[in-house]
Amino acid sequence: MKSLRFAVRLTPRGGRDAIDGWAEDAAGKKHLKARVSLPPEDGKANKALIELLAKALDIPKSSIRIAAGETSRLKTIQIDGDSAALQAKLSEF
To answer: Rounded distance, CA 89 to CA 15, Å?
Structure first.
């Protein structure tokens, strides 16, 4: 099984659950911008992010994990599955 890793900048308490598209940081690294309505306490925002990505990519929540940045706004997400198909879906954001 292959996997795909990418960066996500998460905004907790963002008013709604949404994926706001791709952006670049000052160093030119790309990341997906996402917001969730839940606060970051007790991992609630992280769980909401995983649910949001699973729904948007039409994949099971169990195939998504936060590989790095549990407590940071900038997270590394790892998704197990067909990396080519996942890349295609991610490029639509």
So the answer is: 24
